Amino acid sequence: MDMRRLLSIVLAFAIGGSHPAAQSTGYAAKRPVFGGACPACPWGAMADIVKAAMKPHGWDVQVCYYCAGGPREARLVSAKAMATPPQNPTAAALPTPQAPIDFGATSVELLQYAYLGIHDFAKDPEGPRTQLRLVANIQTPSYFMVAVNVKSRIDDLRQIAERKMPIKLVARGGATEPINDAVLEHYGLSEEKIKAFGGTVAGGYTKGSDVDVIIGWGALTNAPEYALWYQATQEHDFKYLELPADLRARLAKAFYLQVHEAPLLLRGVDRRIPTIVRDGTAVYGRTDMPDDFAYTLAKALDEQQELFHWSHMPFSYNPKTVWKAWDVPLHPGAARYYKERGYTK
């Protein structure tokens, strides 16, 4: 071997690392990339479950823990985008695969919105993302909560507009998030109107701050998305308002939700509260997902349901709903498995 060839090999190893083959990803390498979120987040917790479930079947799932952010996750998966590292990495940051995302997890509602091109995705130039396919819908209930500070003397959110009250509103995810915007609109409110009354609007809660009204999704779990409920309710006394029956019905239809009752989730809740509920974490991919992988993934999640039980998230596996995601088609590989099991006809 001449010196020039030897030098090129040494340089290749120096640049690519001592195990270049270990860097390959994708279905062909049995190392597909999963678009998830932080390990404490719902979609990150699901990523860890998928990785653990697939390991006995010979699949080494690579996880992107920084590929979430509401509708952003579905956009990344649908576009087969590169996995994204954290915006402000620290020494504790988890490694990010340097490869395109193959599949992932999102809420079943966001998957429906992305597939139809509505709500959060209505203005996206891509239009309906009809290449998306469901593999499994895992039950994950969260509840839309409306809390008012006892000191505010608010009994009905309509009072805010009628009296032009300069309230301090916290709307989890932001007041312009479609579901929050629809709720506020019902009461004659918007971010602009609240600010015009001299009030303030925030998307999150800062410990030690004042707040009059909080709206948004809540769940009894230690996930960053729901932390504001635990922080604020420990520092303030709240009473919880019901959404009117007509509003609940309208929101459920428009946003593909369910009408149900919120249990006694938080400090100050003394009764079951009629509200709207979202109940599903979708594990999904695109039409380019191989049938054998989708089959194995559906099988692995079914046969290892104990992984859901030991998660900090309220995941549960229901054979009657695992294969449903509104209008989003079921992947053929997953459909074959569920039919074999008798979950579908």
Topology readout:
Elements: H1 3-16, E1 33-35, H2 42-54, E2 62-64, H3 72-78, E3 103-107, H4 108-116, E4 132-149, H5 158-163, E5 168-171, H6 178-186, H7 191-196, E6 200-202, E7 213-218, H8 227-235, E8 238-240, H9 245-255, E9 258-262, E10 273-286, H10 291-303, H11 306-309, H12 332-341
Parallel strand pairs: 1-2, 1-3, 5-6, 5-7
Antiparallel strand pairs: 3-10, 4-7, 4-8, 4-10, 9-10
Describe the structure.
With 345 residues, the chain is α/β, with parallel strands linked by helices. The chain folds into two domains: 174 residues, D-Maltodextrin-Binding Protein, domain 2; 137 residues, Periplasmic binding protein-like II (D-Maltodextrin-Binding Protein, domain 2, 3-Layer(aba) Sandwich). Helices cover 32% and strands 19% of the residues. The chain contains twelve helices and ten strands. Strands 1, 2, 3, 4, 5, 6, 7, 8, 9 and 10 form a ten-stranded mixed β-sheet that branches. The N terminus is likely disordered.
Count of individual domains: 2
Instruction: Name the helix and strand elements from N-terminus to C-terminus, one letter apiece.
Output: HEHEHEHEHEHHEEHEHEEHHH
The pLDDT mean sits at 93
CATH architecture of the largest domain: 3-Layer(aba) Sandwich
Beta-strand content bin: 15-25%
Largest sheet properties = 10 strands, mixed
- Rg to the nearest angstrom? 23 Å
Kindly list the characteristics that best describe this protein.
345 residues, 10-stranded mixed sheet, 2 domains, D-Maltodextrin-Binding Protein, domain 2, alpha/beta, 12 helices, single chain, disordered N terminus
